[in-house]
């Protein structure tokens, strides 16, 4: 198989870092036309990156849906794309997520920090530099981290480090002590393997609410609000918390209600002070306190804060649970008809993935609200749920073709 230099700007034929030249094969016709990259696994092996990363990068750069079938070693980009164009786009991926910014050497490992920042650790020059954390692929990488070097099995949260799987690292990649009780459920291993390309915009409100928003913070209003939040262990869905642990979330909710204009940094600092930072239960409380009837306009402003608390499937379910309570218990008259738009907003912001939303919408649950309220919220969400199901079916049909 013909090879090219990983850095194609280097013309030296003896350059040691090589990769296979990208091959493409166009299949199908009409709306079902697609481009298969038969040697994507070989290319990714040369780059020491999972094949899903460059494939998803193609999708984002071309605005096309992709399909990553690791079991059958098939990596597909919808539409007809020639190999030269894909090779050029691959150069952009290599520059962003493979080459060391300091020495331009491809001997790098990816590190996911505690704050979900991607850092490249260079084995050649020893420096650590941030990767492009603004690109849409960055979210996909943090949610689907590569296995540590030399381990092809279960994916670790902090790929490319010598730390044990599940251990946390600081922003410089140094190991830190984990927060007790913050482990993810076993079902977090079932995180969705892929993200659909951004969907066509659903009808949404065009009016933008003013940035300044406030609530009644009188003692009576706070007491009523806390009663509605009911941040007890039974509402939060776990039975193994003691009273002290439940009181921490209640204190966090009350502080949020009393400090409605607190900055994202203030909120996170308070969560750390109470010992609830990065815990999924805190996310449910957070959603109920930082959003109101203008949630559609508020989501983009609060996306980074929610991601800072965690992005696991457990955290995503907590976001949906918080929205279920916010809509069903606090702003039923104002927000029930806007549920599809709210879900579209959190989906576009990469706060909750497709499979998590579909699983949530399968049937009513008493986990966060009473069954009747849950049924009403999920019935209101049916428009968006059907759109997601149809998009998934269309992609399956294209694969079958």
Automatic annotation (TrEMBL):
GO terms for cellular component: cytosol
User: Which SUPFAM superfamilies does UniProt cross-reference here?
Assistant: ARM repeat (SSF48371), Translation initiation factor 2 beta, aIF2beta, N-terminal domain (SSF100966), Zinc-binding domain of translation initiation factor 2 beta (SSF75689)
State the family it belongs to.
Belongs to the eIF-2-beta/eIF-5 family.
Name of this chain's protein: Domain found in IF2B/IF5-domain-containing protein
Provide the GO MF annotations for this entry: eukaryotic initiation factor eIF2 binding; GDP-dissociation inhibitor activity; GTP binding; translation initiation factor activity
Taken from the record, one Pfam family name reads: W2
- The answer to whether the entry has keyword Protein biosynthesis is yes
Matching InterPro entries: ARM-type_fold (IPR016024), IF2/IF5 (IPR045196), Transl_init_fac_IF2/IF5_dom (IPR002735), Transl_init_fac_IF2/IF5_N (IPR016189), Transl_init_fac_IF2/IF5_Zn-bd (IPR016190), W2_domain (IPR003307)
GO terms in the biological process aspect are: formation of cytoplasmic translation initiation complex
Q: What UniProt keywords are attached to this protein's entry?
A: GTP-binding, Initiation factor, Nucleotide-binding, Protein biosynthesis
């Amino acid at each position: 198989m013909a090879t090219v230099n990983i850095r194609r700007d280097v013309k030296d034929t003896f350059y040691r870092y090589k990769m296979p030249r990208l091959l493409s094969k166009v299949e199908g016709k009409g709306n079902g036309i697609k481009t298969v990259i038969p040697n994507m696994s070989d290319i990714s092996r040369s780059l020491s990156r999972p094949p899903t990363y460059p494939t998803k990068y193609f999708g984002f750069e071309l605005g096309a849906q992709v399909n990553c079938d690791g079991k059958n070693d098939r990596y597909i980009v919808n539409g007809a794309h020639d190999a030269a164009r894909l090779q050029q786009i691959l150069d952009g991926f290599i520059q962003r997520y493979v080459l060391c910014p300091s020495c331009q050497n491809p001997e790098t490992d990816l590190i996911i920090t505690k704050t979900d920042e991607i850092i490249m650790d260079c084995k050649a020059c020893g420096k650590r530099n941030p990767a492009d954390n603004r690109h849409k692929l960055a979210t996909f990488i943090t949610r689907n981290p590569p296995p540590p070097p030399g381990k092809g099995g279960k994916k670790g949260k902090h790929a490319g480090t010598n730390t044990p799987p599940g251990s946390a690292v600081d922003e410089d990649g140094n190991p830190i002590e984990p927060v007790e009780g913050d482990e993810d459920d076993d079902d977090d291993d079932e995180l969705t393997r892929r993200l659909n390309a951004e969907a066509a915009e659903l009808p949404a409100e065009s009016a933008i609410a003013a940035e300044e928003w406030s609530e009644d913070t009188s003692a009576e209003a706070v007491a009523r609000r806390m009663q509605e939040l009911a941040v007890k262990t039974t509402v939060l869905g776990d039975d193994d918390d003691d009273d002290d642990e439940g009181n921490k979330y209640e204190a966090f909710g009350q502080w949020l209600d009393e400090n409605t204009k607190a900055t994202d940094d203030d909120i996170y600092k308070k969560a750390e002070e109470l010992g609830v930072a990065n815990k999924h239960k805190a996310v449910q409380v957070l959603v109920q306190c930082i959003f109101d009837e203008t949630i559609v306009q508020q989501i983009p402003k609060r996306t980074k804060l929610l991601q800072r608390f965690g992005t696991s499937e457990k955290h995503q379910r907590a976001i949906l649970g918080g929205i279920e309570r916010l809509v069903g218990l606090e702003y039923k008259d104002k927000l029930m008809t806007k549920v599809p738009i709210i879900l579209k907003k959190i989906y576009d912001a990469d706060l909750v993935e497709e499979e998590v939303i579909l699983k949530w919408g399968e049937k009513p649950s008493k986990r966060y609200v009473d069954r009747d309220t849950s049924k009403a919220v999920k019935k209101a969400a049916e428009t968006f749920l059907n759109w997601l199901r149809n998009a998934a079916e269309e992609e399956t049909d294209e694969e079958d073709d």
